[in-house]
Amino acid sequence: MNPRARGTGNPVVRHRWIRIGGWLAALTAVFGCAAFFAGPLLSGPALTQLIVPGPLLHVQPQAVRAALLPALQGKGFFSVNVAQLRKDVLAVPWVASAAVRRSWPHTLYIDITEELPVARWNGNGLMDAQGRVFAQSAAASWAKLPVLNGTEGNEQDVLAEFNDLNSQLTAHGLAMLQLTVDARGDSSVSLNDGIQVRLGRSDALQRLQRFLAVALPTLSSRLAAVAYVDMRYTNGFAVGWKSQMASSGQHKEVRPNG
Questions:
Q1: Which of 95, 142, 165, 240 has CB atoms 3.0–4.6 Å from 227's, for a disulfide?
Q2: What is the Cα 220 distance to its own chain's centre?
Q3: pLDDT in tens, 126-185
Q4: Which CATH fold would you assign to the domain 119-254?
Q5: 159 Cβ contact partners less than 8 Å away, ≥ 6 residues apart
Q6: 15-65, pLDDT tens digit by residue?
Q7: Which fold has domain 49-114?
């Protein structure tokens, strides 16, 4: 056997390995270039136009753009995360709902529905129909909204109670200006005729119904002089008169016949 043909010392073998190594290096370079250029190609064209259709009264388009900018950085038409964009828009003040849609090749549309406040919460908080306090405002334009007062975290419960009680009042031509539920759970309502009705901690709806069915007819001729009606009595109710409150703060208990 020829000793020069043994092992890797053979020039023919060395040449063969050099050629294979060259091909591997070339293939690595090709795949590297492909990976480098494939990212932008698969991502699609850049989204360069953001449209927020209007008119919008409270949501500022520039606030929407600022909220979306981080999620748009380095993203294209196909790679942008639409779900994340919608989540970011919903975090903008006064946005109740949002829809995000793409239009080929460069446009992103953000369709926004603004919040509609139904009540004020603890002063200046603006509450929507789901019981969410979404903004703070002392603007006079919200002065006619009913006021709900309660402990933080109980917004939805207080709103639900307001809706139940107010539906009873509107059937009698009355409206609630304010509902207060204190830390102990005691409820009291202020009506549009200036009377406060104290309902207590339990059976607030039943006590309000009793106020409408019994106390209101009993006091009908003297309502202008009534400051409050306390319905927390089992067989009657107490009346606080404006003149008495101005002088001594006393009230009179009334027990209807029957």
A1: 240
A2: 42
A3: 999 999 999 999 999 999 999 999 999 999 999 999 999 999 999 999 999 999 999 999
A4: Rossmann fold (3.40.50)
A5: 118, 119, 127, 131, 148
A6: 554 555 555 554 454 444 433 444 454 789 999 999 999 899 999 999 999
A7: Ubiquitin-like (UB roll) (3.10.20)
